Amino acid sequence: MTTTKLATCLICGASDYTVNGQNPQWSILTCNRCGLAFVYPIPEMAQIMELYPADYYAHREAVTRRPTLRADLKRMVASEIYDLPLPHRFQSWQSWSKKLIAWLLRYQMRIPPPRQGQRRVLDVGCGNGTYLLWLRELGWECYGNEIDTGAVIEARQAGLDVFHGDLQQAGYPVESFDIINFSSVLDHTADPLGNLREAFRLLKPGGEIIAHCPNFASLQSQLFGQNWYNYIPPEHLYYFPPNTLMAIFEKAGFRVEKLWHKSPTNFLPHTLMYRTRARRWFNPLKEHYHIEPEWSILAKSIFAPFSLIQDALGRGETIYIQGRKPVSSR
Ligand SMILES: [Zn+2]
Question: Cα(35) to centroid of ligand 1, in Å?
């Protein structure tokens, strides 16, 4: 590892870095003061677009077009928590079993139905609109933006109002939204702070922001280093430990209210596979999003306890953050 002095850190303004990954086009720099890691130099937008193949996961069929068990489970949980219609397949189930499942899966209900005075939600990086279709079912007036052409076409076919481009280009009016959701955007975008500042402008005073991204300080990241499942430069451009994620939210003006961890159970088996096979054998993008091993369910069951332990230790794979635009921000 070598240290270098280059541009200033997006979050803390320091300019001392450790170089911990390099190829001819870019390096991975970790800020010695705050721990933010990033690809340097940040590629141009056109180069970023080339990273996403036409069959990228965001193009998958949207949830409401086919009543999958997974989607119906979510509806069942919503029916328990918010008194919404219960999917047909669960109508004969015992009430205690529905209550138990609703309790176990309650974290899935990140955004509740709109409360009084709330109406509009924005999903930044909405993909093909799967999550927005769900929020529409909950009663929200939904908007999204997405840079991927194929995903935008699918979302619009589902009747969603989706802007094709990044958030700063969308030009939504000031204070348009009650809630803004970022799904795995901050690690992919060339300008996470610009995105958050724009979200701040777009939120009504008192409005809520929710985001999630991979945790650079996760147990698996620390154990496996460059073989970590989420270490995929330059697709992932920024790597946030929890403290830097909170810091960038505060820098954009938000008050951070909550930060929590959740480790998808398929990450550890994937990391292990990644570690035991020569990395050059496969295209990282395809490998990350298209492996559905036959033993997936078995692997998930075996690895589920590790996920729970990681989350309990506060070293989970994905960090979720929830913040608010202060009421008196002007
Ligand atoms: Zn820094």
Answer: 6
What stretches of the chain adopt beta strand conformation (E)?
Answer: 2-4, 17-22, 27-31, 37-40, 120-124, 141-146, 161-164, 177-183, 203-214, 238-239, 255-262, 318-324
Residue 275 lies in a domain: no
27-31: strand order across its sheet: 2-4, 17-22, 27-31, 37-40, 238-239
State percent of the chain over pLDDT 70. 82
pLDDT band at 289 (very low <50, low <70, confident <90, very high): very low
Q: In angstroms, what is the span from residue 214 Cα to ligand 1's centroid?
A: 18
Tell me, in angstroms, the distance from the centre of ligand 1 to residue 206's CA. Answer: 28
Any domain includes 129: yes
More confident site: 287 or 163: 163
Cα(12) to centroid of ligand 1, in Å? 4
Distance from Cα 9 to the centre of ligand 1, integer Å: 5
User: Could you give the number of structural domains in the chain?
Assistant: 1
